[in-house]
Write a structure and sequence with these properties.
Layout: E1 17-22, H1 28-36, E2 41-47, H2 50-57, E3 64-67, H3 74-83, E4 87-90, H4 98-111, E5 115-117, H5 125-135, E6 142-150, H6 170-187, E7 190-198, E8 203-205, E9 215-217, E10 223-230, E11 235-241, E12 252-256, E13 259-263, E14 274-277, E15 283-284, H7 299-309, H8 318-337, E16 341-342, H9 355-362
Parallel strand pairs: 1-2, 1-3, 3-4, 4-5, 6-11
Antiparallel strand pairs: 6-12, 7-10, 7-16, 8-9, 10-11, 12-13, 13-14, 14-15
Helix pairs in contact: 3-4, 4-8, 6-8
């Protein structure tokens, strides 16, 4: 456990949670604007430089450190924050390997601190609507899923794409995590994986920003195909690629004996869900919560704060993140070994989100037990 139930909890009428952001990348601005818009949170500082990070994490006005650094820096920054007595919400992955991820979890448990990790898009309107259908067995027996992420790669838009083509990144760790997290949240833990991979080029060129024209090395596979078998028997066929132009296939489909579902990209919180019931045609599913909007883009951070305040809210906890990380590590290993690999970790399937929780996130001044 990374967050014992008996650590001190803040009363509902206390001051807002102090947030410190480490990392000045492309998503830091969006995190900052959402935090500033919430009366439940207050942004105390943002560190984009290594020399400012230590001062930020020891600031007594900061309760939670949001770690938005490049993937290889996640473990060190999260460790520094935990050692300073701060709760942590980290962008994915939790760490770049399993031993370091487990070490972070051990440290958080020893300090009585919460450790959370993106992605939290399983809390979004689209996936929660699908979860409701699966829970009432509307599709019959779920037999499997199929998903694809196919686009030219972040070097076409990102100002500093090199880290996204290195260790703990590439299409598997950077984007495939969304498919894996969505399916673990919907189906439960993974039993085993098998995979193949290729790489179209050993280097790429930055297209935009101050580094435009700069060539950088590519050190990870950029096209990954994997079969994932879940503990409950479902099988998913997944493709993650930075080598294609695009795909007309749905980002994610789920298949049952009585029907199929087509989901929006799992990296999004909302979007249209299409359904085809037995012998029927495709039609749009009425989603479960029309109240969802862009203000809830930091749903994972809200869910962490709920957890700290004692609400029974599903949240992107470290055990869930560890299991998804192991899946990616084993997929990568399978591409090298040519073997099917069993997972050693497991996790709880997150409980469904309630309308009451979403209303509380949108109206934090009205929150009640």
């Amino acid at each position: 456990m990374t967050s014992p139930r008996d650590f001190p909890r803040r009363k509902l009428n206390d001051t807002p949670w102090g947030i410190g952001i480490v990392g000045g990348g492309d998503i830091s601005g969006r995190y900052a604007s959402c935090i500033k818009a919430s009366p439940r949170l207050v942004l105390r500082g943002l560190s984009a430089k290594d020399e400012d990070t230590r001062a930020l994490v020891v600031d007594p006005s900061i309760d939670i450190v949001v770690n938005l650094t490049p993937p290889l820096a996640h473990e060190a920054v999260s460790r520094l924050a935990l050692q300073a007595g701060k709760h942590v919400y980290s962008e994915k992955p939790l760490a770049h390997d399993l031993p370091q991820a487990r070490s972070l979890m051990k440290l958080a448990a020893e300090r009585g601190l919460a450790l959370a990790c993106a992605p939290a898009t399983f809390l979004g309107n689209a996936q929660q609507s699908v979860r409701q259908l699966l829970d009432v067995e509307a599709l019959g027996t779920i037999v499997g899923a199929r998903g694809i992420l196919m686009y030219p790669g972040p070097d076409k838009w990102h100002h500093n794409p090199a880290p996204l083509f290195g260790p703990a990144a590439g299409p598997l760790f950077d984007m495939g995590i969304y498919h894996l997290a969505a399916l673990v949240a919907l189906f439960g833990p993974i039993e085993c994986v098998t995979a193949f991979a290729s790489q179209s080029s050993n280097s790429r060129i930055v297209v935009k920003g101050p580094k435009a024209g700069h060539r950088f090395d590519v050190s990870v596979p950029t096209h990954v195909c994997t079969l994932v078998k879940f503990v409950d028997g479902q099988i998913a066929d997944l493709v993650f690629s930075f080598d294609g132009v695009g795909s007309a296939a749905p980002a994610l489909e789920i298949y049952g004996t009585n029907g199929s579902l087509s989901l929006p990209p799992p990296g999004l919180f909302s979007g249209k869900v299409q359904q085809a019931l037995r012998y029927g045609t495709w039609s749009e599913l009425e989603t479960s919560c029309e109240e969802w909007d862009d203000s809830l883009w930091i749903a994972g951070l809200y869910a962490l704060v709920d957890h700290l305040e004692g609400y029974d809210t599903p949240w992107p906890n470290a055990q869930f993140a560890l299991h998804c990380l192991e899946a990616m590590v084993k997929i990568e290993a399978s591409t090298k070994l040519g073997e099917t690999l069993l997972l050693e970790t497991s996790c709880q399937r997150p409980q469904p989100l309630t309308h009451k929780t979403i209303r509380r996130w949108k109206n934090p001044d009205q929150r009640v037990r």
